[in-house]
Structure formats: C-alpha cells, structure tokens
C-alpha cells in the first residue's frame, strides 16, 4: 500500500549492494557511510542492513550522528570526522566512537578528554591531500604525527587509522592525491605509527581505482544502489537502488486547451488535458529546478511534470489517459521497473543523484522493507 507521500526503503538492496561491493573491492575492511541520515534513507535501519551485508565499519560526519547509532544499540566500530570546535569529545570517547582528527588542537582536546575519563581515545588522523577541506596539511604532518605517536606511547590515544579523501576530479588529480597520501604514510611510519587502517577511497575510487583501496574503502552512494559516475548506471555496476519515492494522486482535473498550470503559468495546456496533482513539493525536497523537466510514473506509464513545482505539490500531464485520485505515483525508484531513476531527477534539476535522495524531507515518512520481504 502506497502512502500519500512515502520513501520506501528496500533494506535488502542495501545488504545486497554491500555484499556485492565487498566481493568486488576485496579489502580487509569496508565502511558503510551513513552520514546525513544515510543519505536520506534512515541511518539506523540502513546501518543494520549494511552490517548484515558485510560492512564492518560505519562512517558519519558528526559525533551527534555517531551517538544516534549507539543510542539505537549499534555496537560496531564507528568513525566521525567533522567536528565543531566545542565537540562532545568525552561523550564520543565514552561511547567508543573513533574520532577523525584534522589538527593538533583537536588531537590535544581529545587526549585531554581521554585523560580525564581514564580512557584511551581511538583516533584516525585525516591528511589533507588536495581537497582543501579538513585534514592535516602536509606542512603540519611531522609535528602532528609526532604528537600522535607521543600520546599513543602515553596511553591516551590509540592511532587506529590514517585516511584522506579524493576529489575524483581526473585520473591525474587522483594520482597526485595518492602520491601525496603515500608521502603522509611515510611520515607516519617515521614517527613510529603503525595504524591498522589506511583508507582513501569512497565509492568512485573503490570501484575504479584499485590502487586507492588500501585496507578499507568508505562506501556511500554505491551502497544506496546509485552510481557515482556519469558514464555508468547503478545497474551497470551491479547495484540496485534502495529508495523508491512515491505517493498517491491527490486530485485529477480535466482542463481545456490554454489553461495555465501552477505559479507563473510557465506551462499552459497545448490541448485539452487530464492533469494529476502529486502531493510532494520542494518542502519535501523535490527540486524546484526540475519544474517542467522531470517525469513520474503513474499506473506504469511515465508522464511529464508541467508548470512550477510548488512547496507541497506539483502537476503532471496525463494527456488523455484515465487517472484517478489515489492512483500510485512513483517519482523515482529502480529504473529496471520502468520508473524514472534518482539520476533522471538529478539530470532534470542540474544536480547529482546524491543530492536528490539526501534532500528528501522529514515530512516524507520512510517505510522499510526487510531483506526477503515482498
Ligand atoms: C561522504 C563521504 C564518503 C562517501 O562518499 P561516496 O561518494 O558517497 O561513496 C566517504 N568518505 C568521506 C570522508 C565522506 O565525507
């Protein structure tokens, strides 16, 4: 039964995607990245499904996101790597969360928190290798890695990993970042560090750049069944999309040729037409930029979105087809079933599939299908 608005999440697809990618990459460890509410899919159920598929680490941006996983009873290793200056270091250490470290200041704060708790903080040092975001800059590697080694010898921190992140700009840019990362690994070894985890690749490099795999890959978009590439679909990569965004037709109206539709009348019916109203709008994360460009599926046929996408709703032109209130509408899902994909919506909106699934708003209830459930 389709709800009025609903993001149906196929947890079996997440499990299968992780198992497929695990076999493909062959690294000793695999991290499922479940930041941002698992790219809109729901952090806790997706984390469990990914662990079932063979992920051994979970990755998030913020400590708050990591604590949410722990609060749900998830005990697997978790790494959080983006911190505010007043981050809850003690709560994270207490919850056994690994902390990504991007500066000497963070390292010192974490060691101080560990000392006052009487605990050893598990840290993973992030090296800046070209993205110009966070991570320790090459000019700081020696002092920061030496400090990490000293704190490790003092029993305050354990340096469990060293990592960085690629820009996926071009083969040459990725090669330069890998070379930079290798220099960082040498500086770490010279400082006396022997981290158990070395990781650099997110989905794109994990799939196409074997030399970037090291001991772990961090998979986000691919575990949701979507492709990080312009030249390959999820299906081409052996993946199945986990999210189907759907709803029910809220109203049907027959209009005469010339009728204006939605704000600003950016579209007027060229001939007498049956219009179906779909009760999702930009408040739900439907990109307004896709007005007049995206398509949806109703009763197994695809129809164009016409006129402006509004806050709560948009209009679809069903031509002369019979459409009724309550008919199920699929905005995107698995294109193998004949419906548009999240990537189709991304192309219509001038963005990427990551953005399409992640932006689906809180007003859209998530429903979950367990592995094996029909
Ligand atoms: C978001 C993120 C990932 C996952 O990237 P995908 O392209 O979705 O696989 C991996 N590593 C870091 C540091 C990230 O921020």
Topology:
Layout: E1 5-10, H1 11-25, E2 29-33, H2 35-39, H3 43-52, E3 57-60, H4 63-71, E4 78-80, H5 89-94, E5 98-101, H6 104-117, E6 121-126, H7 141-153, E7 157-163, H8 171-190, E8 197-199, H9 203-208, E9 216-219, E10 243-248, E11 251-255, E12 260-261, E13 267-268, E14 273-278, E15 295-298, E16 301-306, E17 314-317, E18 328-332, H10 342-349, H11 353-358, E19 366-369
Parallel strand pairs: 1-19, 2-3, 2-9, 3-4, 4-5, 5-6, 6-7, 7-8
Antiparallel strand pairs: 1-10, 10-18, 11-14, 12-13, 14-17, 15-16, 15-18, 16-17
Helix pairs in contact: 1-3
Bound molecules: pyridoxal-5'-phosphate.
How is this structure best described in words?
The protein is an alpha/beta fold and 374 residues long. It has 2 domains: 215 residues, Alpha-Beta Barrel (TIM Barrel); 127 residues, Lyase, Ornithine Decarboxylase, Chain A, domain 1, CATH 2.40.37.10. The chain contains 11 helices and 19 strands. The mean pLDDT is 97. The protein binds pyridoxal-5'-phosphate.
């Amino acid at each position: 039964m389709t709800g009025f608005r609903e993001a149906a999440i196929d947890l079996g697809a997440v499990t299968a995607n992780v198992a497929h990618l695990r076999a493909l990459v062959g690294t000793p460890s695999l991290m499922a990245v479940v930041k941002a509410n698992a790219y809109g899919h729901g952090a806790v159920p997706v984390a469990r499904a990914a662990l079932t598929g063979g992920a051994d680490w979970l990755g998030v941006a913020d400590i708050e996101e990591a604590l949410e996983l722990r609060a749900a009873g998830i005990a697997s290793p978790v790494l959080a790597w983006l911190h505010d200056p007043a981050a809850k270091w003690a709560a994270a250490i207490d919850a056994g969360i690994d902390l990504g470290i991007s500066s000497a200041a963070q390292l010192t704060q974490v060691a101080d928190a560990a000392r006052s708790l009487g605990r050893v903080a598990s840290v993973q040092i992030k090296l800046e290798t070209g993205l110009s975001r966070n991570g320790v800059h090459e000019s700081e590697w020696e002092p920061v890695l030496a400090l990490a080694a000293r704190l490790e010898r003092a029993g305050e921190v354990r340096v469990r990993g060293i990592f960085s992140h690629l820009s996926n700009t071009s083969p040459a840019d990725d090669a330069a970042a890998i070379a930079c990362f290798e220099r960082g690994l040498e500086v770490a070894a010279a400082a006396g560090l022997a981290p158990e985890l070395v990781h650099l690749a997110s989905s794109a490099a994990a799939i196409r750049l074997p030399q970037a795999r090291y001991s772990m890959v961090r998979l986000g978009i691919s575990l949701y069944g979507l492709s990080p590439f312009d030249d390959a679909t999820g299906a081409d990569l052996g993946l199945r999309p986990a999210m189907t965004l759907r709803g029910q037709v809220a109203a049907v109206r027959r209009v005469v040729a010339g009728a204006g539709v939605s704000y600003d009348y950016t579209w007027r019916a060229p001939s007498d037409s049956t219009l179906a109203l779909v009760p999702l709008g930009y408040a739900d994360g439907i990109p307004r930029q896709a007005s007049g460009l995206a398509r949806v599926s109703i009763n197994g046929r695809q129809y164009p979105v016409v006129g402006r996408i509004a806050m709560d709703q948009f209009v679809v032109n069903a031509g002369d087809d019979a459409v009724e209130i309550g008919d199920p509408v699929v905005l995107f899902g698995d294109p193998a079933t004949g419906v548009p994909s999240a990537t189709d919506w991304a192309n219509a909106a001038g963005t990427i599939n990551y953005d399409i699934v992640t932006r689906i708003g809180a007003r859209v209830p998530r429903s979950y299908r367990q592995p094996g459930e029909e």
